[in-house]
Amino acid sequence: MAGNFKEQENLLKEANASYNKDPLLRAQITHHLILQEKWKDASDFASQTRRANQDDVHALCALGAYHYHCARESKGSEAERARDFVRSAEAYNRALEVDPKCAVAAQGLAIAIAEEHLPSRKGAANGATDSQGAVVKTKSLDMALGIFNRIRDCLPDRSVLINIGHCQFFKGDEEQAIEAVRNQPHLALRCYVLLTSHCPPVFRRI
């Protein structure tokens, strides 16, 4: 696999040397960097793309994914984590303003909205525990769930079903969480394991 990535990288570099302004090629290079988890390189390349075209949807989605990754992996304060979730949501939202039919941007936005008000992976009790905080979290999950349900038919990727199940899980509706993936036996089993082991689910991008 590493060899394949290296070969692809060399081919993309050669193509970029001659066609560095081609938007589809730049999108492919950005995607390649993300697949290799070279997040900073992907962010820098996407930002360069936007200097030529502020409304490049692929670059906006890449930046949304980058800030989401930063938020998920944050070792800083909860304020810093929240800031990256907001930046992720802003990038995805801008992509949707440019292309309202971009299901990838819609899913990214829904994930950022859902996760912004959930506890961090560090296990800190940063999620609001008072009644007002619980209402905010529920509203965010309902908003995200609405987006996931709208794109379910036009984005044929199991990540959408996983994310619908996760929203239901975080809302405390375990039966609906399993129902969301009932027609996908391997996903239903995974959901059951999460419910019985009390492991926090992780939202999935495509």
In brief, what are we looking at here?
The protein has 206 residues and is mostly helical.
Write up what this structure looks like.
The chain has 206 residues and is mainly α. The chain has a domain at 2-133: Serine Threonine Protein Phosphatase 5, Tetratricopeptide repeat, CATH 1.25.40.10. Helix content is 73%, strand content 0%. The chain is built from ten helices and no strands. The protein has helices at residues 2-18, 23-35, 39-52, 57-72, 78-98, 103-116, 131-151, 158-171, 174-180, 185-197. It starts with a helix and ends in a 9-residue tail after the last helix. Residues 121-129 have low confidence and may be disordered.
Q: What are the salient characteristics of this protein?
A:
Serine Threonine Protein Phosphatase 5, Tetratricopeptide repeat; globular; single chain; 206 residues; mainly alpha
Detail the topology: elements first, then pairings.
Layout: H1 2-18, H2 23-35, H3 39-52, H4 57-72, H5 78-98, H6 103-116, H7 131-151, H8 158-171, H9 174-180, H10 185-197
Helix pairs in contact: 1-2, 2-3, 2-4, 3-4, 4-5, 4-6, 5-6, 6-7, 7-8, 8-9, 9-10
What's the mean pLDDT score? 80
Write down the CATH class of the domain at 2-133: Mainly Alpha
CATH topology (level 3) name of the domain at 2-133: Serine Threonine Protein Phosphatase 5, Tetratricopeptide repeat
Query: Which structural class is indicated by helix and strand composition?
Result: mainly alpha
Counted by DSSP, the helix tally is 10
Task: Give the low-confidence spans.
Answer: 121-129
Radius of gyration: 18 Å
The shape, in one word, is: globular
Number of DSSP strands?
0
CATH superfamily of the domain at 2-133: Tetratricopeptide repeat domain
Terminal-residue CA separation: 20 Å
Assign a percent range to the helix content: over 70%
What CATH architecture of the domain at 2-133 would you give? Answer: Alpha Horseshoe
Q: Characterize the biggest β-sheet.
A: none
Give the amount of beta strand, in percent.
under 5%
Note the run of SSEs as H and E: HHHHHHHHHH
